[in-house]
Amino acid sequence: MAKKNKEPAIRGKTVSQRAVLQGISLAGLALPLMQFLTPSEGKAQGAEQKSGTITEESKMADQTPKKPVVIILDMANGYGWKPGSFGYDMVARVKQLKDAAYAAKVQVIHVNSMRRPTDNLPGQPSMMVGSDNLNVIPELQPINKDVLIYKRFLSGFSHNDLDYTLRTMGCDTVLIAGASTDNTVLWTAGDAHQYRYRVVIVEDCTMVHREKEPPGAQECALRIIRNVLRGEVLPLHEVTAKYLKAT
């Protein structure tokens, strides 16, 4: 009997296990969703508002955030954050975000990938348990005031206690930064939305998965966050003014 293919199917084709486990960019997967982001959507939303219908998303948007938390994704040694490397200029802005959170007495949570030998992954994964690759990069040290959580797959919420940690501290708003916009940031924003957190992306504190991503990959991911997840996408100075006022 022929063995059934258990790989996930997308549009009649399969996504290889290697591509999934190594962190496939969502740019290609996100492009079909652009049909949902047309101007006609805004007209439909306007008609809905005129009819007096109040959606759950609009209720959340109207609520004043009471407890924001900064989440920094995959800013770890194993991802090659070195001077001159692709996206390294973002590191200084993430440091500013972290400092602003401290000044506002807002909790910072780092979420980094972690792999185990028993995961049976192809090749030699760099983010192996017990290695220095898992540690937060020196530019964002020290982290003695921060929380460090490891994720086991693409989303910051995957197979860990991030949701529990946020809820026990009373968090209602997540300010998301780090890498990458079209991969972990998008997955994390999606999960945060479904867990009913207000989602805010710090636009200039995130970047695409790799330098060779197709043109528009960043904006495509951000439009999904804006239009599908109803999240806010704001530059660092606006996030600081709105959510991280010094106390």
Can you offer a commentary on this structure?
It is a single chain. The protein has a domain at 76-115 and 127-247: Rossmann fold (3-Layer(aba) Sandwich). It is globular, with a radius of gyration of 19 Å. It contains 9 helices and 8 strands. With 247 residues, it is α/β, with parallel strands linked by helices. α7 (181-194) runs parallel beside α8. The longest helix is centred in the middle third of the chain and has 14 residues, at 90-103. The strands form 2 sheets. Strands 5-4-3-6-7-8 form a 6-stranded parallel sheet, sandwiched between helices. It has helices at residues 17-21, 27-30, 39-50, 56-62, 90-103, 162-168, 181-194, 217-227, 236-243, and strands at residues 9-10, 13-14, 68-73, 108-113, 147-151, 173-179, 198-207, 232-234. A hairpin with a 2-residue loop joins β1 (9-10) and β2 (13-14).
Provide tags for this entry.
247 residues; alpha/beta; Rossmann fold; six-stranded parallel beta sheet; two-stranded antiparallel ribbon; globular
Note poorly predicted spans.
2-51
Q: In the CATH hierarchy, what is the class of the domain at 76-115 and 127-247?
A: Alpha Beta
| CATH-derived architecture of the domain at 76-115 and 127-247 | 3-Layer(aba) Sandwich
Distance, first to last CA: 68 Å
List the helices and strands in order.
EEHHHHEHEEHEHEHEH
CATH topology of the domain at 76-115 and 127-247: Rossmann fold
Give the full name of the CATH homologous superfamily of the domain at 76-115 and 127-247: Isochorismatase-like
Instruction: Supply Rg.
Output: 19 Å
Residue share in helices? Answer: 25-40%
Q: How much beta, percentage-wise?
A: 15-25%
Number of DSSP strand runs: 8
Helix/strand-derived category reads alpha/beta
The quaternary organization reads as: single chain
In DSSP terms (H or I, runs of 4 or more residues), the helix count works out at: 9
How much is the average pLDDT? Answer: 83
